[in-house]
Amino acid sequence: PSNELIKEGQILKLAARNTSAQERYLFLFNNMLLYCVPRFSPRFSLVGSKFTVRTRVGIDGMKIVETHNEEYPHTFQVSGKERTLELQASSEQDKEEWIKALQDTIDAFHQRHETFRNAIAKDNDMQSEVSTAELGKRAPRWIRDNEVTMCMKCKESFNALTRRRHHCRACGHVVCWKCSDYKAQLEYDGGKLNKVCKDCYQIISGFTDSEEKKRKGILEIESAEVSGNSVVCSFLQYMEKSKPWQKAWCVIPKQDPLVLYMYGAPQDVRAQATIPLLGYVVDDLPKSADLPHSFKLTQSKSVHSFAADSEELKQKWLKIIFLAVTGETPDGPNKHPATLD
User: Fold this and answer.
1) Which of 49, 116, 124, 131 has the smallest number of Cβ neighbours within 10 A?
2) From which residue to which does the signal peptide run (predicted)?
3) Angstrom distance (rounded) from CA 327 to CA 258
């Protein structure tokens, strides 16, 4: 059969955020592991209990690591492409039975699909950390908060007020807010943007340190500086994908006429975001009667919607944007940028 039940049973899941252990239930099939929570009762004594599937972890690419935790005995780690789980069995025997069942299922899966090469030899020397080649492709094991007292990148000590703990979604390390102020698309999470540390960001995105400094430097340009020497600037309503509409001070500066800068207000000292306009597709047909002066910029999976307060202001923006998306810059001097308070 395509789905053959190998083993099922109660298990405890160790949380990275705190010291609690949460009751869960596992169903091991020949091609996947279902990580479930009870739908009604937190206990599993009743026959025919109903469960909600929290995570499905495929057997393909799964690795099992026996872990050692002084506070929590009988622990082991299930690392899959979709997620990594740190689990606690009820006894040493229960732990060994789970590890054996999981490993036997992994071995049988690879033998059936003829992709099992040197996994047996490597499993004996398994590393719990995600390798550089696997960054973004495999869900990492999160380092537990109580296992570190300082940022694993800059080495600054954590505290409850100014330097709190954050987890890099690529490597699982515990880092401070400053070292986790990056986002990258992670393959294991369907290509969604996730918070990552600087090192993982540079590896996954391919940015060098100098390129990242340049990118950060662009965002640090003050709004007043670019607004006073811009091609066009004004307040616009802005929406990214399905997020709520919000008011933004938008600027296309003369010295960088192919980039749209967005600020929270005209006097902000740092841009909230920038959009390199080259290559975007412009849709100038309004989609809502509530926002008749709207337009949309689309490129691959990036969708940015804008709405002006008047048709006149919308057309001023579109005149500049239509040029920028093709790589052209406005002709003629523009001593007084188009603005509308």
Assistant:
1) 124
2) none
3) 7
Closest CA to 141 of 2, 273, 16, 258: 16
Single out the residue of 152, 159, 15, 33 nearest to residue 88, CA to CA. Answer: 15
**Spatial CB neighbours of 99, under 8 Å, sequence gap ≥ 6:** 64, 66, 76
Q: Where are the domains of the chain?
A: 5-128, 145-207, 220-324
Q: Is the pLDDT of residue 57 over 80?
A: yes
| Residue 135 near residue 129 (C-beta atoms within 8 A) | no
Domains 5-128 and 145-207 are alike in CATH topology: no
Segments of 139-245 assigned E as strands: 166-167, 174-175, 182-186, 192-196, 230-240
Fold of 220-324: PH-domain like (2.30.29)
78 in Cβ contact with 62 (< 8 Å) = yes
Q: Could you tell me which residues come within 8 angstroms of residue 325 by beta carbon, excluding any fewer than 6 positions away?
A: 277, 278, 279, 280, 281, 282, 297
pLDDT tens string 72-92: 888 999 998 888 888 999 999
Q: Which fold has domain 5-128?
A: PH-domain like (2.30.29)
Residue of 219, 195, 227 lying closest to 274 (CA atoms): 219
Residues belonging to the chain: 341
Q: In terms of C-beta distances under 8 Å and separation of at least 24 residues, what long-range contacts does 178-184 make, across chains too?
A: 178/154, 179/151, 179/153, 179/154, 184/136
CA distance 267 to 6: 63
Burial pattern 191-206, b for ≥16 Cβ within 10 A else e, equals: eeebbbbbbbbbbbbe
- Decide: helix, strand or coil at residue 270: coil
Structure tokens at 142: 């999160």
Residue percentage of the chain with pLDDT more than 90: 26
Question: CA-based Rg of the chain, rounded to a whole angstrom?
Answer: 26
Q: Are 97 and 75 in contact (CB under 8 A)?
A: no
CA distance linking residue 267 with residue 214, whole number of Å: 22
User: 279 near 299, Cβ under 8 Å?
Assistant: yes
